Amino acid sequence: MTAINWAALNAAAKAASEQAYAPYSQFPVGVAVQAESGNIYYGCNVENASYGATVCAERNAIAAAVVAGERKLSALLVYTPQRNLTPPCGMCRQVIAEFFQPDAPITSSNHLGEQQSWNVQLLIPDAFTPMYLAASAKINKDS
Ligand code: THU
Q1: What is the mean predicted confidence (pLDDT) over 28-51?
Q2: Is the pLDDT of residue 43 over 60?
Q3: CA spacing 20 to 30 A to 52: which of 4, 29, 75, 90?
Q4: pLDDT band at 22, cuts 50/70/90?
């Protein structure tokens, strides 16, 4: 298993935060994910004049990994240049649960070099994951 390159994740997430499109909230977010391949992907939040169309940095980083062909992700780092260390929002936790194992580390860091870590299981216990759909497909097939 490839080691998690936290320094590279932090640098990528920080660079991504500098590209954030956040004119409404003034809350730039950058996220980097490391896939099991060892490759790193990143994304920023992209807001919209129709506020609900905003997409968080977490989902944009995961989408960048997916379009590159990745399906198994190992670690995620959120960077926000503000004192409060930012955990992923509820919708992003659901998307994280799709591609990361329950023990995968999810870390937040800031411009002061501070950080806080969780894992997927802690952020979204009893997540609805693809295995439930697989179970449903099997039941439907058997009946
Ligand atoms: N945001 C993220 O990108 N990730 C999070 O984990 C929390 C919120 C964005 C969405 C919006 O552009 C801004 O931060 C304020 O909510």
Answers
A1: 98
A2: yes
A3: 75
A4: very high
Q: Is 58 a catalytic residue?
A: yes
Q: What CATH number labels 6-142?
A: 3.40.140.10
Residues with CB under 6 A from ligand 1: 22, 25, 27, 29, 45, 47, 54, 56-58, 78, 86, 88-89, 92
DSSP helix/strand/coil, 59:
helix
**Residue 135 pLDDT greater than 90, yes or no:** no
| Distance between Cα 102 and ligand 1 center (Å) | 22
Torsion on CA atoms 6, 106, 73, 61, rounded to nearest 10: -90
Could you tell me the sign of the dihedral formed by the alpha carbons of 108, 22, 71, 96, in that order? positive
Boundaries of every domain in the chain: 6-142
pLDDT at 59: 99
Which two structure tokens, joined as six digits, stand for 138?
């099997």
Q: Which of 18, 58, 98, 114 is catalytic?
A: 58
Token representation of residue 37: 């391949």
Side-chain half-sphere exposure of 69, counting CA atoms within 13 A: 3
Ligand 1 atom at shortest distance from the alpha carbon of 87: 6
